[in-house]
Structures are given as structure tokens and as C-alpha cells.
Amino acid sequence: MNKRQTRSFAIISTLVATAVFLGLTVDSHRQFPALTNAEAITPEVTRGKDVWHAKNCINCHTLFGEGAYYAPDLTKISQHRGAPYLTAFLKDPAKFYDEQRHRRLMPNQDLSDEEIAALIAFFDWVASVDNQGWPPRPILVTGSSIPGTDLTLAQQDASGPGHAPEQIPPGARPVSGGEDPIAQGEALFRTVTPACNACHSIAPGVNLAGPTLAGIASRAERTIASADYQGGAESVEAYIRESIVAPSAYLHPGEMYSAGGTSFMPNTYAQSLSDEQLDQLVAYLATFK
After folding, report:
1. H helix or E strand, kind and range, residue 262
2. How far is CA 199 from CA 8, 45, 194, 252, in A?
3. What pLDDT shows up at residue 171?
4. Running along the chain, 289 residues long, what does each successive block of 10 average in pLDDT?
5. pLDDT of residue 122
6. What domains are there in the chain, each with its CATH number?
7. pLDDT of residue 252
8. How far is CA 169 from CA 95, 110, 207, 287, in A?
9. Angle made by CA atoms 88, 91, 93, in degrees to the nearest 5
10. Is 37 exposed, middle or buried (0-12, 13-18, 19+ CB in 10 A)?
11. Which one-letter DSSP state was computed for residue 155?
């Protein structure tokens, strides 16, 4: 290839690369409104974004992985926690986590009810953005340590590589794959939206946004037999199913699990899961003796 051919090749290659770059840029901008769910950007969402910036939330948290890394990413927090939990948490974070027990402290930002509602609307919009499945797994929000280990739950995620797995509760057996309903229930535990393991640990004594599910079968028997139980279940399986589809039927003791007679657990599973899937999830949880 002589100098003239080399020069022509360089010029043509540059022009082709530039054309491809410009085409991809134009196409990206064409898709932005749909990918970002721009139609859902209401004045309240914009107000919530202003609150996010005014309170410098990004100094500790991240959205879409961008920001500081002192506190958890909040990209999917509205799906993982829900409005009732977030409302109570933002009103008084100290009821949920404190520096002594969890080695972290969320400061009380003294938000008004309107600011909290707007911030949650902003989180709802963020969670609805098409971010190609990121983050790939629930990000645990706690600093409680698992008994018998040197790791904290903030460092753990059973569904990701390079992370320590959650302990198997006493009486439960590890399962995987196949058509076994218990195996299918274990898979659902980690993949439903919101994922069960985003709020519940299966390690004894480790409570997250929801109480640990270790020993839930034994606790279900005691709860059904107690005078405080006002639900309609008469068996362990029925109690677990009721807890999934009607979480406010029985409120687990503790301010961080409910407020005003309403459980913080999402009440959408009755619509998002089929009867067969509910049976599978109940079968899995019922093994936690």
C-alpha cells in the first residue's frame, strides 16, 4: 500500500467511524424518552429530584451506580422496600438502623411529608427506568453480622459471585434445579419482584428490613396457637401463604416491620404470583423448621 492509498484508507476509515458514531448517538437520543420513561416525569418526580440534590443524598448513596459508595445504591429501592416502609424510614431512620448496632447511621433529614412523598415518587421513577437489568441482584441494606461469621450482611449476597452464601436454616435442605416444587420455591425466593431476599434473611437471628425467615415453620405453629393471632390460617402452610398474600393479617412485633396496622411488606404478590408459584414458595419456606 503506497502513501496515497494509506492516506485514502485513513480518511475513509475516519469518515466511516464518524458516521457510525453519529448514527449511534442519534439513535440513542431517539430511544432516551422510552428508556427513561420520560412520560412519567411528573412535577412531583421533579420535586423529589430537587429534594435528592438539596439534601446531598448522593454524598452517601448511588443511583445507577453513580455517586458515593458509603451507603447502598437506591436504584431499585422503591421496588425492594415499598412506599409504607420508605415513608416510615425517612421520617425517623433511627427506628430502623443505628450506629451502635449496625455500624452505620442514616441522619434524620427532617423531611416534611410533602418532601418524603416527592422523594418516593422520584425513587419510583428511577426504578422504572430501563437500565438493562442493573443492579443484577438485591443490595442488602444493613450492617448486622451473621452469627458465626466475620462478614456483615452488607458485604454478602447469596446470588452473586465472590460473596459468602447465606446460612441454611436448621432443618432446611439445600435444593437446586429440576421440577421439585421446593427447588422452584427457592428460585422464586430470589427472583420475584421485589425479591424476598432483599428484605428477609434465612440466617438465624439476622433481621433485615423484614424478620429472618429461619425457623418460620416453628414460629408459625406458635403464632397460630397464640391468643394474639387474628388471621385465618389453621396450618403452617396456610399461615406462610397468608403472610405472603395478606401481610397485614398478622403483624410481626417491632416498629421497623409495620406502622398504623399496616405491614411494610408489599401486598402485591397475590397479583404477581400464580397459585402454583405461591404453592412453590410456601413449600420452600415451610422447610425452615
Report:
1. strand 262-263
2. 61, 25, 9, 14
3. 40
4. 89 96 93 85 96 94 88 88 91 80 79 97 93 65 39 36 39 53 92 86 87 94 92 95 94 86 90 94 95
5. 97
6. 38-128 (1.10.760.10), 153-285 (1.10.760.10)
7. 87
8. 27, 39, 13, 9
9. 85
10. middle
11. G
CA distance 128 to 33: 12
Helices (H), 56-206: 77-81, 83-91, 99-102, 113-128, 181-191
Rounded to the nearest 10°, the torsion over CA 37, 41, 42, 43 is 180
Residue 67's DSSP bridge partners are 62
The distance of Cα 196 from the centroid of its chain, to the nearest Å, equals 8
Q: What is the rounded distance in angstroms from the CA atom of residue 140 to the CA atom of residue 149?
A: 17
What φ, ψ does residue 260 adopt, rounded to 5°? 60, 30
Angle 194-209-60 from CA coordinates, rounded to 5°: 90
What b/e readout covers 102-123, taking b as 16+ CB neighbours within 10 angstroms?
Answer: bebebeebebeeebbbbbbbbb
User: Cβ distance 81 to 131 under 8 Å?
Assistant: no
Q: What is the pLDDT of residue 24?
A: 94
**C-alpha cell at position 194:** 421485589
Distance CA 153, CA 138 (A): 12
Closest CA to 240 of 254, 253, 250, 226: 250
**Per-residue model confidence (pLDDT) at position 105:** 77
Residue with cell 434445579: 177
* Rounded CA separation 23/192 (Å): 37
Alpha helices in the chain (DSSP H): 3-35, 43-54, 77-81, 83-91, 99-102, 113-128, 181-191, 216-225, 236-245, 269-272, 275-285
